[in-house]
Amino acid sequence: MAKRTRSETPQKQAMREMMKEYLKNNDVSVKNGADVNAIMRDMMSVILEGSLDEELDEELGYSKYDYANKDTKNSRNGHSSKTMHTSYGDMELAIPRDRNSEYEPQLIKKYQNTVTQDMEEKIISMYAKWSSPCFARSPSVPAPSWAVSA
Predict the structure, then answer these.
(1) What is the CA radius of gyration of the chain?
(2) For the segment 2-32, what is each residue's pLDDT rounded down to a tens digit?
(3) Are 114 and 91 in contact (CB under 8 A)?
(4) Which of 15, 23, 62, 97 could disulfide-link to 69, CB 3.0 to 4.6 Å?
(5) Can you tell me the distance from the alpha carbon of 2 to that of 5, in angstroms, rounded to the nearest whole number?
(6) What are the strands, taking DSSP E only, across 1-150?
(7) Are residues 52 and 96 in contact, defined by beta-carbon separation less than 8 angstroms?
(8) With a threshold of 0.90, does the pTM exceed it?
(9) How far apart are the C-alpha atoms of 128 and 130, rounded to whole Å?
(10) Which secondary structure element, helix H or strand E, spans residue 115, and what is its range?
(11) What's the Cα-to-Cα distance from 95 to each of 2, 36, 48, 82, 135, rounded to whole Å?
(12) Is there a contact between 131 and 11 (Cβ–Cβ < 8 Å)?
C-alpha cells in the first residue's frame, strides 16, 4: 500500500519541525491533554511577551540596549506580572513598564485578564508565520526579536 503524504503549508511544516526540536531538546513528553495545554501556554506567553516588548520599543522609539538611538527621557523600567486566563489554563505574563508610566499596552489592555479564542488562534498563526523557513529567507521584513532563535 502506498504511503499517504501530508498536504501542509510551509508554516505548518515549520511549526511541526520546531515542536519536534523543542520536545527533543527539552526532554518533554506529551502523554495527555494537560501536557499539550502546558506547551500551548508556554508558546502563547513567549509570543505575547515578545509582542509587548516590541510594542514598548515602538513607544520609546528605540530597542532594548540600543542607547545610541535613544531620543527620549523615558526608558524601560522592568516588568510587572499579570495572570491571563486562556482556554489552555492560567498563565503568567511579564508586562513591560516604562519609567514615566506613559506606555499603555495595546495587545493586552490594562485590566484585561482573558485571552479570547480568536486571539489564541491569531497568536498560533503568528507563531507559525514567523517560524516559517519561507519567512526566514525574506530579508525585506525583519522578524521580531522573539521569533529569532539565539
Answers:
(1) 18
(2) 666 667 888 888 888 888 898 899 888 899 9
(3) no
(4) 62
(5) 9
(6) 76-86, 89-98
(7) yes
(8) no
(9) 6
(10) none
(11) 51, 24, 9, 7, 27
(12) yes
Q: What is the C-alpha end-to-end distance of the chain, expressed in Å?
A: 43
Residues 28, 39 contacting (CB under 8 angstroms):
yes
Residue 95, helix vs strand vs coil: strand
Give ∠ CA 108-117-6 in degrees, rounded to 5: 120
Query: If 0-12 CB within 10 Å is exposed, 13-18 middle and 19+ buried, where does residue 123 land?
Result: buried
Burial 58-70 (b: 16+ CB within 10 A, else e): ebbebeeeeeeee
DSSP secondary-structure letter at 3? P
Distances (CA, A) of 42 to 88, 89, 119: 10, 11, 15
CA 89 to chain centre: 17
* Identity at 53, one-letter amino acid code: D
Element (H, E) at 12: helix 10-25
